[in-house]
Amino acid sequence: MANSKMAIASLAAQIRPFTCLAASLPSRLAPHPPDLIRWIKREGGFVHHAVKLSQETQFGIGLISTEQISPGTDLISLPPHVPLRFESDDSSSSSSSLLSALARRVPEELWAMKLGLRLLQERANADSFWWPYISNLPETYTVPIFFPGEDIKNLQYAPLLHQVNKRCRFLLEFEQEIRRTLEDVKASDHPFSGQDVNASALGWTMSAVSTRAFRLHGNKKLQGGSSDDVPMMLPLIDMCNHSFKPNARIIQEQNGADSNTLVKVVAETEVKENDPLLLNYGCLSNDFFLLDYGFVIESNPYDTIELKYDEQLMDAASMAAGVSSPKFSSPAPWQHQLLSQLNLAGEMPNLKVTIGGPEPVEGRLLAALRILLCGELVEVEKHDSDTLKSLSAVAPFGIANEIAVFRTVIALCVIALSHFPTKIMEDEAIIKQGVSATAELSIKYRIQKKSVIIDVMKDLTRRVKLLSSKETPTAA
Ligand SMILES: C[S@@+](CC[C@H](N)C(=O)[O-])C[C@H]1O[C@@H](n2cnc3c(N)ncnc32)[C@H](O)[C@@H]1O
After folding, report:
1. Distance 234 CA to ligand 1 centre (A)
2. Which fold has domain 2-293?
3. Pocket residue to mutate for ligand 1, from 119, 241, 303, most atoms within 8 A of Cβ
4. Domain ranges for the chain
5. Of the residues 24, 59, 134, 278, which should be mutated to test ligand 1's pocket, given the most ligand atoms within 8 Å of the CB?
6. pLDDT value at position 405?
7. What dihedral angle (degrees, nearest 10) is formed by the CA atoms of 97, 101, 107, 109?
8. Residue 237 Cα, ligand 1 centroid: separation in angstroms?
9. Which residues contact 436 (CB under 8 A, 6 or more apart)?
């Protein structure tokens, strides 16, 4: 042990410590990092002459174009050796095989941690090929694992709180596991150049990856024509900020003679002078944007609210909606069978349903409500499950049934809103008073969640009104 400590000390000159240097604004790992564009060009990559890094974008550093560019123009091209990937079969050295062994202990859903181990290995290595890239990475991230406890609580939304706590717990446990695994490892075999890896360094690297990595085709799979899902860090390309209306996109192109692929950014639309270059990170809910990227999008059309399909809750909601004796707690055998087909009953049901997003009511929930509030097998048998799951299929079991369904969802929304301890107006007043950046993010997040519920209520109320106006002549 004493020997290995001495060996680690003698390695000190060849490592980069995980502690952070005092950095200029906006804070990057190195105070004056090398010019990324020059590095990419030196490595044989291409950067359009009008593409420049800008510190003055709305969202931190970004890329802008200094002149008008037409659609289809190549903006950036990275040679195959520049993206940073986790190569699982690269176990030629003890340190790589130790890294692979650690990576195998990372749960699949935390894929960012796996590539993060590789990034941390390179960050520790004073001779890293990727240092010009790594030194340009932000020193801190605004993802909730770094929020003070109070701001995590202030998110007010149980499914996200659960995810944040799960990630924090994992980081603390993984820190111990890495320490145990690397305790007696010789400095020369140590994957992190002998440095102690704590939860904060793990959090930094996981966040660097989750905020910046892109999931693309791997080289081998692209050749065979099938798709793969390989996370990669794409230097310079990852300086593009996000928009649902992007003006650029990433493509992969086979590199002539060898089987390697080039990763390119091309202009998707016309780019005007001084426009930022924007990519679409994905049609994601604010849960993913906050958890993985550390930001929240206002009026995000893909934001949703998760509810639990709970029979008692459904009964309570439909009674509140005026249904006299709802059958959610005691479905007929045929209804139970249909619920099983929707995976809302049976041995391993998935009881998580969503409202909001492109479809205001998730198809499975809509079908379940229609079926349970209908009660007539002969009626239900007339429709296939796709029709029952679709809001564009208007009132398959008649107007009264559809109104009861929508009113039940509205009542579910009221119940969901009542679980938030504060109202939107109160949240807005707190932000106005001035709060920390993390508190503001938490509050903005919960405002958006409540807005999703309110928007669904407005949408369904409009539909109820429309249906009621159709119902009147028949009833008369
Ligand atoms: C891939 S990096 C883009 C480069 C980054 N702006 C920087 O300074 O290094 C993604 C990060 O940029 C910021 N970002 C990108 N698009 C954003 C958006 N639409 N709204 C808010 N923040 C955004 C977030 O901090 C996010 O984690």
Report:
1. 14
2. set domain protein methyltransferase, domain 1 (3.90.1410)
3. 241
4. 2-293, 304-475
5. 59
6. 97
7. 0
8. 12
9. 148, 151
Beta-ladder partners of 262: 253
Q: What span, in angstroms and rounded, lies between the C-alpha atoms of 411 and 318?
A: 7
| CA 13 to centroid of ligand 1, rounded, Å | 33
Q: Provide the pLDDT for residue 473.
A: 52
The H or E element that residue 352 is part of is: strand 352-356
Do the beta carbons of residue 154 and residue 44 sit within 8 Å?
no
Q: Cα separation of 310 and 214, whole Å?
A: 37
Give the model's confidence band at 221: pLDDT under 50 very low, under 70 low, under 90 confident, else very high.
very low
- Residues 300-310 have pLDDT tens digits of 999 999 999 99
CA 208 to centroid of ligand 1, rounded, Å = 11
* C-alpha span between 143 and 296 (Å, rounded): 10
Ligand 1: residue of 293, 299, 302, 441 to mutate (most ligand atoms within 8 A of CB) is: 293
Give the residue, by CA position, lying nearest to ligand 1 atom 15: 241
Cα of 16 from ligand 1 centre, angstroms: 26
Q: What residues are paired with 233 via a beta bridge?
A: 84
| Ligand 1 midpoint to CA 241 (Å) | 5
What lies within 8 Å, CB to CB, of 44 at 6+ separation is 79
Q: Which residues line ligand 1 (CB under 6 A)?
A: 59-62, 138, 211-212, 238-239, 241-242, 293-295
- Residue identifier of the C-alpha nearest atom 23 of ligand 1: 59
pLDDT digits (tens, 9 = 90+) for 369-398: 999 999 889 999 999 999 999 999 889 999
ipTM of the complex: 1.00
Side chain identity, residue 6: M
What is the 297 CA–ligand 1 centroid distance (Å)? 12
pLDDT at 229 over 90: no
Q: Does the pLDDT value for residue 222 go beyond 60?
A: no
Q: Which atom of ligand 1 is nearest the CA belonging to 143? A: 27
Instruction: List phi, psi (to 5°) of 107.
Output: -60, 145
Name the fold adopted by 304-475.
set domain protein methyltransferase, domain 2 (3.90.1420)
- pLDDT > 50? residue 416: yes
Band the pLDDT of 12: cuts 50, 70, 90.
very low
Lowest-confidence pick of 145-149, 158-162, 239-243, 321-325: 321-325
Closest C-alpha to ligand 1, atom 18: 242
Residue of the CA atom closest to atom 4 of ligand 1: 239
Q: What is the mean pLDDT of residues 214-219?
A: 81
Residue 472 is predicted with a pLDDT of 58
Q: Decide if 6 contacts 187 (C-beta within 8 A).
A: no
| Model pLDDT for residues 434-450, shown as the tens digit of each residue | 999 999 999 999 999 99
